[in-house]
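User:
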Amino acid sequence: MELINRLKSAVGIGAPTITIEGVAGPVRAGEVLRGTVAVRGGSYEVPVHSVALHFDEQHLTHTLPSAAVRPDRVRRRHVASAELALDGPMLRPGQRIAREFALPLPPALAPSAGPLAYALVAEMSIAGLDPRAEVPLVVVA
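Assistant: Predicted structure:
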């Protein structure tokens, strides 16, 4: 049964999802980001332990010459991170788990400019699935 679930999740059928809620920009260096991470079970049980939350410095690149196309985001490094514990050990179908967070940003964070960008990322490690959510944020001086 696990093999069938992995095959279904490989094409996006019934996999658990993760979302970041309540976070809006722009943000400032030294500020505390507050919001909620919500995990929702898919169509089958999966083992869960925690959500990794991190604020990433990214480099924007344009692979196509059109300004209408969103740039690619290449992660450079985590500038702030936290681990949010879940109820575990299993996420049941349709179950929703929400965790509030407060993530302090470093005071020496450079403002977003040119190819320098930032995003808040939430990830879960689930064998073969690895759900992920990303919210791009602008850092102002």
